[in-house]
Amino acid sequence: MWVLVVRDLHVHFVLENMTVKAVDGVSFHVSEGEALALIGESGSGKSVLGMTILRLLPENVRVNGKILFNGSNLLDLSEEGLREIRGKEIAWVPQNPATSLNPVMKVGIQVAEPMEIHLRIDRKSAVQRVANLLKFFDINPPEKRVNEYPHQYSGGMKQRALVAMGTSTKPKLIIADEPTKGIDMTKKVSIVELFRKIKKNELSLLLITHDLPFAEKLADRIAVMYCGQIVEVCNVKKFFKSPLHPYSKALLNSLPSRGLKPIKGNPPSMVNPPKGCKFHPRCEYMSGRCLEEPQMFEIDGNLVRCWLYD
Ligand code: SF4
Q: Which ligand 1 atom lies nearest to the CA of residue 287?
């Protein structure tokens, strides 16, 4: 069963002299208990896409399409209706734990807040539940940690506290934006363990990340974004063994473990993207046909936006 369905989503930032097409006709779904990793280079539109789902974007943004959750289009909900879902049914784990916690509030009170608001639990009981959550996420000793301030937590502990906050209301879906950004290798192992624990609880995950090894360890499927579009959606094993799209192949070849071969050229402009296939100026397989926009082709249950598969 699908928890989240995104259909033909367009997100454009309208500025004085230009329009930035950050998301350009994106469709995908996340199933119950599934982890979908949205990957791509910085600036490919993946974080904007995540923020659009919870309407966390500024007002100069123009959004079209459908974001279906629990049978409702989130784009049609009133601010009040959305508040019922945001933090309760869908949790957002932001990318910078250092700045996402209020420095002058005890962590226990901050983590308890969604339970007070959405589950109507009094503060004392909510903080008691927080201690259990901190213990679950290896923040020890929990009874002491609930009464500490963010500066008394390490970076990894802040990240885990934010995840504890996100899971506190038992949401159906967690969207995590670059959960390993700025985290060193040793701490990454604990972040992987953290998300594995969440997965065991059968929550659905949308992981927005440029960290391919992290995605490989956690995701069931990979969706690849390039210049505001999804160019491939693939089963994780198949993706890391033999990806379909030339951009996916180039991304994997740029990993240190696979030879550190940089992708030639630069990511295209989102104001004036290339005509046809947006990857064509960088693609070694480019032919005349690639000046037409490719459709999505289905290959053995996986999807790829490339004329090579016609
Ligand atoms: Fe390369 Fe053409 Fe496929 Fe685009 S459509 S990825 S340019 S082969």
A: 2
Give the DSSP per-residue string, 179-242. TTTT--HHHHHHHHHHHHHHHHTT-EEEEEES-HHHHHHH-SEEEEEETTEEEEEEEHHHHHHS
Q: Kindly calculate the radius of gyration of the chain based on its CA atoms and give it in whole angstroms.
A: 20
- Identify the residue whose C-alpha is closest to ligand 1 atom 3: 306
| 108 pocket-lining for ligand 1 (C-beta < 6 Å) | no
**Torsions phi, psi for 168 (to 5 deg):** -60, -30
**Per-state percent for the chain, helix, strand, coil, to nearest 5:** 40, 25, 35
> What fold is seen in the domain 2-89+171-309?
Rossmann fold (3.40.50)
Residue type at 269 in one-letter notation: S
The pLDDT of residue 155 is 84
Spans of the chain, pLDDT less than 70: 182
DSSP letter (8 states) at residue 268: P
Domains of the chain: which residue ranges? 2-89+171-309
Question: Closest ligand 1 atom, CA of 231?
Answer: 6
DSSP string covering 133-150: HHHHTT-SSHHHHTTS-G
156-193 pLDDT, tens digit each: 889 889 989 988 999 999 999 988 876 777 777 888 88
Q: For position 102, what pLDDT does the model report?
A: 94
pLDDT at 59: 82
Count CB atoms within 10 A of the CB of residue 15: 10
Tokens 């959550």 belong to residue: 133
